[in-house]
């Protein structure tokens, strides 16, 4: 970063933005840097997992854009526009508040679901034979790379823990409803959450 | 069931098999009945959600097949074969032991993930903009029908509660690892669960 020229744009694409924005806050070349988080990718990693047109139509979250010099903002926008990305501006605190719930928590719920099933099913053929598309979909993120996700959870530790507490609380409440045979509420819990249908069209 | 003829095959396609098998155990026409559970379908319900070739290549679990008269077993196999289904025989107890983990638990983990995110995200546009394919996949089952799933959870209540306890325990352990900054174990937990890649090819 110290050696980049005036016209050089440096941007990252990591899943956490707060730590990098804080680390670089007072850097003399801060205005050459743009903090980005493209919401794109799959559970697979490495060169073999490359996908043509990966960013087309995907959201690119840009944090603290005002701290990047205007000329380099324009350079970045031209690039992202060519890639077909939708731009969303956000401060780095709002970013982790959203992404913790919409991305990081999903990965843990999926990893732990996979763990619970693998622990139970000694015979892997049973899992394969009985896994419908529902299980495959819910457990898909458990195929993700630990090398990528361990640092993400480390950097966003505090907020991931908080989201996990809320998730565990909701699961515990649902379990209590089952234990109390309160199936009217079991029904309502699911019906209320069905709103996700309208949100994720 | 009382009025079916000798040559008539009656089968169900429900997600729980133990209750129906017990209910019909001593029925005079028991040998006309076959307890089936085709592992197929989507999160959508109703006639508009019909899919051509839904059963093609899917697993059909048949419980207590020996209690169905041989002639009608053959009639059923001819039908399922025409539909392109893979047959898996199982007693009704093994069925719920497997399906509780591989299907029912997935639905609850997904519903409660959706609930946790919706509660947090007051602005639904934020969810939509920031939801990657990962979140969409993990929360997909939260679109499922409460009218279909409430009775399933009611009939399989005991085992669903047990699987939920194990799932909540695994999530709590993972949270503890984060709280104790034990990121080596956080890594190992994820790496061990990556085995799901080999199981669900």
Describe this structure in a few short sentences:
The structure is a homodimer of 201-residue chains. With 201 residues, chain A is of the alpha/beta class.
Explained architecture:
2 copies of one chain form a homodimer. Chain A is of the alpha/beta class and 201 residues long. The first copy, chain A, folds into 2 domains: 10-93, Rossmann fold, CATH 3.40.50; 95-199, 6-phosphogluconate dehydrogenase C-terminal like domain (6-phosphogluconate dehydrogenase C-terminal fold), CATH 1.10.3660. Chain A is 55% helix and 9% strand. Chain A is built from 9 helices and 4 strands, in the order βαββαβααααααα. A 4-stranded mixed beta sheet of chain A has the order 1-2-3-4. In chain A, α3 (92-120) packs across α7. Chain A is elongated and about 65 Å long. The model of chain A has no long low-confidence stretch (mean pLDDT 93).
Give me the secondary-structure topology.
The structure is a homodimer of 201-residue chains.
Chain A lengths: L9 E3 L5 H7 L8 E6 L20 E5 L6 H13 L3 E5 L1 H29 L3 H7 L2 H6 L7 H10 L1 H23 L3 H11 L2 H4 L2
Parallel strand pairs in A: 1-2, 3-4
Antiparallel strand pairs in A: 2-3
Helix pairs in contact in A: 3-7
Write down the overall geometry of chain A.
elongated
Under the CATH scheme, the architecture of the largest domain in chain A is: Orthogonal Bundle
Low-confidence stretches of chain A: none
Q: What is the mean pLDDT of chain A? A: 93
Domain module tally of chain A: 2
- What is the count of helical runs of chain A? 9
Alpha-carbon Rg of chain A, integer: 21 Å
Based on secondary structure, the structural category of chain A is alpha/beta
Query: Considering DSSP H and I runs of 4 or more, what fraction of the residues of chain A is helical?
Result: 40-55%
Instruction: Please name the fourth-level CATH homologous superfamily of the largest domain in chain A.
Output: 6-phosphogluconate dehydrogenase C-terminal like domain
Write down the CATH class of the largest domain in chain A.
Mainly Alpha
Strand content of chain A: 5-15%
List the strand order in the largest sheet of chain A: 1-2-3-4
Assembly level:
homodimer
Give the distance, in angstroms, between the N- and C-terminal Cα atoms of chain A.
Answer: 41 Å
Q: How would a crystallographer describe the biggest sheet of chain A? A: 4 strands, mixed
Stated plainly, the CATH topology of the largest domain in chain A is called: 6-phosphogluconate dehydrogenase C-terminal fold
Q: Which two chains have the most extensive interface, and how many residues on each?
A: A-B, 90 and 90 residues
Protein name (chains A, B): Prephenate/arogenate dehydrogenase domain-containing protein
Domain Prephenate/arogenate dehydrogenase (chains A, B): 1-201
InterPro entries (chains A, B): 6-PGluconate_DH-like_C_sf (IPR008927), NAD(P)-bd_dom_sf (IPR036291), PDH_C (IPR046825), PDH_N (IPR046826), Preph/Arog_dehydrog (IPR050812), Prephen_DH (IPR003099)
Keywords (chains A, B): Oxidoreductase
